[in-house]
Write a structure and sequence with these properties.
The chain has 19 helices and 28 strands. It is α/β, with parallel strands linked by helices and about 650 residues long. The strands form six sheets. Strands 1-2-3-4-5-6-7-8 form an eight-stranded parallel beta barrel, surrounded by six helices. Strands 11-10-12-13-20-19-18 form a seven-stranded mixed β-sheet. It is globular. About 0% of the residues have low confidence.
């Protein structure tokens, strides 16, 4: 999608993608201080902000409401031409906010709070849109209370017996997880309806969080029905635990691409992005550099984000996170991080027409995950079991396996989709040139079996690795009782053996040695070409069907790559995607360097980020006739010629390609 403009964009200077920051409003601040913060945003050409609308600041114990503190903020925003995303934040004693009602009484209190907020603030010209709640997502389990049990009973009563019943075997229903998908959607939809009853035309938004874990409880296609834009919180210190700091730009890219897929035909934002230091908060505390701010912003823009809002401009004064996270110092002066963000916004503003029409260039490659695989992986954990050396059986391996492929595609300069299986269009008449990667997706639900078959028959390539398809949606082992995709894959699993933390898988077509992890899977081959042996045991098969083919390596080569060097996996993937046609890519793998490509009219924009730790000259494959011009860089790298770019360590470079 292009950087589409939603309802109130005209008043926000029509510049998208937009960059802004959270303004913390709390009792004790003076109107002069608040005005200073909005002036700072204006000085940086940043015309968006987010304000958390704390009920506890406005609703007094005697039942009266006093909006004056926030009125001052909304007026200051208007004075300095800043638009506000107002986050509903009903009374709570938690830092992250209300996720679900605790009782019917609590629901009524939330309803009254929404009525007060929307009725009062809808008339302010500075109001841009409403954020329904802060960061839905509870880590896989809703609180056990009477209200939750009531909603569960209502949901359960609406469920019908599925047509597919795992051949009559016992089934693990995952009712709690399926209910949570519904429950998140129900509550967000309920809030949206409450807002729209009073303020029907205002954009509606919500920001998920901890995406690489909590994505198991999000039904993004259902959310599109009531949202104007979809958002995400992306705080490396909280949310990027699967990654090293060197990989944080990759993590931002993956986070954005998961949200872009979930958003579908609506725009997406990075609603919270870490802007400052952790002192006592955060699982992995650090302070971003100005270079990292550039990397994350341009990676988000290159992924198609309509806007990015930092957490936060000014720090809280009291309690949790006090004195942390800010992009200004304690004297209200811009830090290097805020100046960096302002420079990116200024570059976008200078080329506003170019970016307004820009959209990510698809490669036709989709890395897929599914909810059920994440549920089953978590269900399989043994409390207290050792984890060292056996990461493949620990929570996170399903996602890390997918991320391993995403990483090597990024290091090839390719923009791929990162999608839940339910977000994919399984009804296209022709999939020629399309690739799906299923890396260690331990569940393949029955509702996708026909879609996968049609995908291959109609010209698609399916790359499958790890224990993909070990279970159906009911945690029933379909390898034991008759693999329904045997004809498509060329066989079924024969056995899975725990082998070593690291061992090698030898392929013959292509001729490669791939590092693998933990489990050696052998195949009972019934058709197709043998492309890998371990002794005399088949460990890899290539099976053509219709106009397409499946490449199946059922050992953990994704995790092997993630835990070791990824060069071999990059060679494997590069060989398998030779038929993919894109305007720009790297001539060869560039470890720890990524590229995002946008198209704007007849022109292109490429974003390059160098996390390799060394000066590198990158060889590009670029279309004939296009010449590069530097739109932005934060160091002294430069295009050497139209097919080579010199990048310094930590450099971000943005190139405009035109004929």
């Amino acid at each position: 999608m292009a950087f589409m403009m939603t309802g109130n964009s005209q008043a926000a200077n029509d510049v998208f993608p937009a960059i802004g920051a959270q303004v913390i409003i709390e009792p004790g601040q003076t109107p002069e201080e608040v005005d200073t913060w909005f002036r700072i945003l204006e000085d940086q050409d940043m015309h968006f902000c987010r304000i958390r609308m704390f009920e506890t600041h406005m609703h007094h114990p005697d039942g009266t409401w006093d909006f004056s503190l926030y009125d001052d903020a909304f007026r200051a925003a208007e004075k300095h031409h800043v638009k506000i995303y107002a986050t509903l934040f009903p009374a709570t004693n938690t830092v992250g906010g209300v996720k679900f009602p605790e009782s019917e009484t609590h629901l009524a209190e939330i309803q009254e709070y929404i009525r007060q907020m929307v009725t009062h603030f809808k008339s302010f010209p500075s109001l841009y849109g409403w954020v329904l709640i802060n960061e839905p997502g509870v880590g896989g389990q809703a609180a056990d209370n009477a209200f939750t049990r009531k909603k569960f009973a209502e949901w359960k009563a609406q469920q019908t017996e599925p047509a597919y019943k795992s051949k009559g075997y016992a089934r693990v229903t995952f009712d709690d997880q399926r209910f949570l998908l519904y429950y998140n959607t129900w509550f967000l939809d309920w809030i949206a309806k409450e807002i729209q009853a009073i303020d029907p035309k205002r954009p509606l938004h919500v920001n998920n969080h901890q995406i690489f874990v909590n994505v198991a409880e999000y039904d993004f296609p259902a959310w599109r029905k009531f949202l104007t834009t979809l958002g995400a919180s992306a705080h490396p210190s909280w949310h990027f635990g699967y990654f090293t700091r060197q990989q944080y730009a990759l993590a931002m890219s993956a986070n954005c691409d998961i949200i872009r897929s979930g958003a579908g035909n609506i725009p997406f934002w990075v609603t919270e992005l870490q802007g400052g230091n952790n002192t006592y908060s955060g699982f992995h505390p650090f302070c971003p550099t100005g270079e990292e701010i550039d990397q994350w912003l341009w990676t988000s823009i290159g992924s198609g984000a309509q806007g990015i809002i930092f957490w936060c401009l000014n720090p809280r004064a009291t309690g949790a996170e006090a004195g942390e996270w800010a992009m200004i110092d304690f004297q209200n002066q811009p830090t290097d991080r805020l100046i960096a963000a302002g420079n990116v916004q200024k570059a976008v503003t200078e080329h506003a027409n170019l970016f307004a029409a820009a959209h990510p260039v698809p490669s036709g490659i989709t890395v897929m995950y599914n909810h059920e695989s994440l549920w089953m992986e978590k269900e399989s954990q043994l409390p207290g079991a050792p984890t060292e050396g056996v990461e493949g059986r620990v929570t996170g391996a399903v996602m890390k396996s997918a991320l391993a492929y995403y990483q090597v595609l990024s290091e090839s300069g390719l923009t791929c989709d990162f999608s839940e299986m339910g977000e994919y269009n399984w009804n296209e008449p022709d999939y020629s040139g399309k690739v799906i990667i299923l890396a260690h997706q331990i569940s393949l639900p029955s509702r996708y079996w026909d879609g996968l078959t049609n995908f291959v028959e109609r010209g698609g390539k399916l790359i499958v690795s790890g224990l993909t398809g070990f279970f159906d949606e009911n945690m029933h082992n379909i390898m034991k009782t008759g693999f329904p995709l045997e004809n498509l894959f060329g066989g079924c699993l024969k056995e899975v053996k725990t082998t070593a933390e690291r061992f090698d898988v030898e392929l013959t077509n292509p001729a490669l040695t791939l590092p693998a992890h933990l489990w050696l899977s052998t195949i009972h081959q019934t058709s197709g070409e043998t492309i890998g042996l371990y002794g005399d045991q088949v460990i890899a098969v290539r099976k053509p069907t219709g106009k397409g083919e499946v490449v199946w390596v059922p050992s953990l080569i994704g995790m092997g790559s993630w835990l070791n060097d990824d060069h071999a996996l990059a060679s494997f993937v590069t060989d398998e995607i030779k038929t993919v046609s894109v305007p720009f890519r790297f001539a060869e793998q560039q470890q720890n360097i990524l590229m995002k490509t946008l198209r704007s009219g007849n022109d292109y924009i490429t974003v390059l980020v160098n996390k390799s730790g060394k000066e590198t000259t990158v060889a590009l494959q670029a279309p004939d006739g296009f010449q590069p011009n530097v739109l932005f860089n934060d160091k002294s790298g430069k295009p050497v010629d139209r097919s080579h770019v010199l990048l310094e360590p930590e450099e971000t470079m943005v190139l405009h390609w035109a004929r």
